[in-house]
């Protein structure tokens, strides 16, 4: 009898062992992209395994607009909002707090280069993961009971999601002409990511449709697609590629039917470790096309003068220190060429942008990590009528966990004007955010944030200031269903007082993700 029982146990163990190994491998790849894809990135702090809060400090897609060290989305052009991963801060570093909620009213607020907590900067790209709900708390720290698993298809994981938000905004367009309106926002998303032992690839397509009950602009539409991939040549060398296409309505004041704006970006990057130096070289290209619109007087207006192409190169070297601090140096050069080389007054305006930065990567694990950089940027304008302009730039992304289940994030960026002209000769924008998340329970997260945006007029006409704040609660009903309650506040003070506005928005949303 004892021999029979022993044989039976041995047989069951042999049968169950492969399933346990498969489950373990599967769980290791649930939270986001394949580790191989996340371990080598362009941007601040990608010299070793990437932290989940990387800082984009680079040339904007159109207009030589620079938001730090790696290629990013042109300010006010692309409004990507993604869910954060476990224990990450909810608000993108350089996007306004109000836009972060991805409600219709919020989506029309001033947007500056979005970057969510688990959006990784592959050569400046923003791989979208975990769906497009636009809320930012995500799963709790313990994660497992409330983390969506995705659908496995061979070596790939498919992550579909759908968000529906409804609420009311006191200023539906977030500008001086805005009026109060109820709204509903629908955001579907589909992500596919690889689960290879080496190399990686990820794709996501996200849509957004906002509908207002009243106001001049009663709808908003956007579609964003993103493809990233990494090929590991050896342990010290990797090639990273990216491609992104976005079609989004360009929110214009006083225009009932906003024009579409199309942005295409592509880049290829080589990461290579030489001794104790991690080198990163990125070539990038972007194309921006603006659609026509009918103004308040009923006259058709084209925006061909804003269409442009940009090509750039980014070089970075990071000293791989075994200590907490790793210094780095980065230089960037780009050339933006407008389809119309001159403005309406015949002035040349193509731009050559040069930037140099020095910075420190900080890594004390989950307790304290991030990066900070300072430098100078100069935009050289063709011709002699429109003056060259430059500014000292700083960018930082610091994450601190003073106690378990609490995360504090402090971020800042400097952005130079994308469209130089006599009217706007080199505006500079400084954006600062302070955000706190606290896991009250395993499935309940509280979110609070505040932000300041200073836009300094290049013609010495003063500074516009925007103050923002956000409060939110996220409740995970189960692994696949989440409820979110958000309140957003924005107050803009313009130098001349003409365009001052206030906006209060409250929304209740439900998100389903497989």
Query: What is the first-to-last residue Cα distance?
Result: 47 Å
The ordered string of helix (H) and strand (E) elements is: HHEEHHEEEEEEEEEEEEEEEEEEEEE
Cα radius of gyration in angstroms: 23 Å
Residue share in helices?
A: under 10%
Largest sheet: 18 strands, antiparallel, barrel
Secondary structural class:
mainly beta
- Give the averaged pLDDT, no decimals: 75
Determine the strand fraction and express it as a percent band: over 45%
Oligomer: single chain
Count every helix, treating DSSP H or I runs of 4 or more residues as helices: 4
Bulk shape? globular
* Total number of beta strands: 23
Please mark out the parts with pLDDT under 50 across 5 or more consecutive residues, or reply none: 1-143
Structural commentary:
The protein has 514 residues and is mostly beta strands. It is built from 4 helices and 23 strands. The protein has helices at 2-27, 35-38, 97-100, 104-107, and strands spanning 57-59, 66-68, 151-153, 156-169, 181-194, 200-212, 219-234, 237-249, 260-274, 277-290, 293-294, 300-301, 308-319, 325-338, 351-363, 368-381, 389-400, 406-416, 428-441, 444-456, 463-476, 481-493, 501-513. The strands form 3 sheets. The protein has an 18-stranded antiparallel beta barrel. Strand 5 and strand 6 (200-212) form a beta hairpin.
């Amino acid at each position: 009898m004892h021999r029979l029982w022993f044989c039976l146990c041995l047989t069951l163990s042999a049968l169950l062992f492969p399933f346990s190994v498969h489950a373990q491998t599967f769980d290791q790849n649930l939270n986001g992209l394949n580790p191989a894809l996340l371990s080598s990135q362009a941007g601040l702090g990608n010299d070793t395994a990437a932290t989940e809060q990387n800082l984009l400090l680079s040339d904007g897609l159109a207009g030589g607009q620079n938001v730090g060290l790696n290629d990013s989305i042109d300010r006010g052009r692309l409004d990507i909002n993604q869910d954060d991963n476990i224990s990450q801060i909810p608000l993108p570093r350089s996007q306004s707090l109000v836009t972060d909620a991805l409600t219709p009213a919020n989506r029309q607020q001033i947007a500056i280069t979005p970057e969510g907590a688990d959006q990784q900067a592959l050569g400046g790209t923003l791989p979208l993961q975990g769906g497009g709900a636009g809320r930012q708390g995500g799963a709790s720290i313990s994660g497992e009971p409330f983390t969506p698993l995705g659908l496995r298809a061979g070596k790939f994981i498919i992550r579909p999601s759908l968000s529906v938000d409804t609420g009311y905004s006191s200023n539906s367009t977030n500008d001086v002409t805005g009026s109060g309106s109820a709204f509903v926002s629908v955001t579907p998303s589909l992500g596919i990511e690889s689960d290879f032992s080496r190399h990686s690839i990820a794709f996501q397509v996200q849509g957004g449709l906002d509908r207002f009950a009243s106001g001049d602009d009663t709808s908003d539409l956007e579609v964003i697609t993103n493809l990233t991939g990494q090929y590991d040549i050896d342990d010290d060398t990797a090639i990273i590629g990216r491609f992104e296409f976005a079609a989004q309505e360009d929110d214009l004041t006083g225009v009932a039917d906003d024009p579409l704006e199309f942005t295409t970006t592509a880049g290829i990057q080589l990461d290579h470790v030489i001794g104790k130096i991690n080198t990163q070289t990125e070539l990038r290209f972007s194309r921006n096309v603006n659609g026509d619109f009918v103004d308040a007087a009923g006259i058709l207006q084209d925006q061909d003068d804003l269409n442009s192409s940009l090509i750039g190169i980014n070089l970075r070297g990071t000293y791989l220190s075994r200590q907490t601090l790793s210094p780095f140096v980065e230089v960037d050069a780009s050339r933006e060429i407008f389809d119309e080389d001159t403005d309406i007054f015949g002035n040349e305006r193509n731009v050559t942008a040069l930037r140099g930065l020095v910075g420190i990567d900080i890594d004390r694990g989950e307790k304290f990590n991030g990066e900070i950089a300072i430098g100078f940027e100069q935009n050289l304008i063709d011709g002699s009528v429109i003056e060259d302009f430059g500014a000292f730039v700083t960018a930082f992304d610091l994450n601190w966990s003073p106690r378990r289940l609490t995360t504090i994030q402090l971020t800042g960026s400097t952005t130079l004007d994308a469209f130089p002209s006599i009217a706007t000769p080199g505006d500079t924008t400084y954006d600062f955010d302070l955000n706190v998340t606290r896991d009250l329970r395993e499935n309940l997260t509280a979110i609070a944030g505040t932000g300041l945006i200073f836009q300094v007029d290049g013609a010495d006409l003063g500074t516009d200031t925007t103050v923002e704040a956000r409060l939110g609660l996220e409740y995970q009903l189960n692994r696949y269903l989440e409820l979110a309650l958000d309140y957003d506040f924005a107050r803009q003070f313009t130098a001349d007082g003409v365009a001052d506005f206030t906006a209060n928005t409250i929304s209740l949303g439900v998100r389903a993700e497989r």
